[in-house]
# Entry
Amino acid sequence: MQMQNPSPRALVLVNLGTPSAPTAEAVRSYLAEFLLDPRVVQIPRLLWWPLLNWVILPRRSPVVARKYAAIWTDAGSPLAAYTRRLANGVQAALPEWRVAMAMRYGEPALAKTIDALVADGVGEVVVLPLYPQYSTTTTASVEDVVARSRAKHPQIAFKTVHDYHRDPHWVDAMAASIRAHRLQHGRADKLLFSFHGIPERLVRNGDPYAAQCEASTQAIATTLGIPRDDILLTYQSRFGRERWLQPYTLPTLQQLARDGVRDIDVACPGFAVDCLETLEEIALLNAEAFVAAGGRSLRYIPCLNDGATHVEAMAAIAESAA
# Structure
């Protein structure tokens, strides 16, 4: 449907993606698109395609579907619901813009979202990947789609936010979230930041992700007024047999529990909104493992989601990019 008063400028908030339902069929469709992206899995297609479609997807899809079912809500996938509400909040904060949400994998697809905005008459598109830290496995894949859209729509001015890992608005929002958690629950024995992992090989080849995770942690610690060493930094969600960034989150939590740590606060500053990796992996599985190893409680600090400080941060970042 055409807009009556089309805005000359649009903002697209892009998240990773999610299955459309917590079923094996929906999960298989989503994982197939995700894992066939050469930015995500860098194995020759002739080798990877049969392995993925004949071995991995048939085995993994039902397992992953059960994980999604454990966190699915009346509003659907938490990642999709929170991203939609975040986009609605940013739209209210930027009334002169046209704000849309999109997914790199799944729906609403980024390329189709851009096509619709162009059809509605926008002249400039700012793409904001909801990845605070840049990686060739995430942000670069969004940039690939934007590059194709730029070639398709040469009359449109495209801008992509590279990262915002030390943006003061985002750092302030993260610090405020941790302060609010501590005000409500008190301070735990330890504070741990868990970021999504990537293969170490990528960092050796120049991916800035690990350095940006460290810079984010340092910036948040400074804003909180605590020493950097008071925050543990770990990496989660390892996939496959290759060596990924370390220390790994789960064994770190288990060792802390064995060492006598009773309560631990865990935040995930690499995730803009809560999703499978935060709600199921951290808040459920890792919390259970921490207690089983001798700890008392893992207190998960939710992502910024659609909170007011997150909305303000995203709006400010978009305006700075325009």
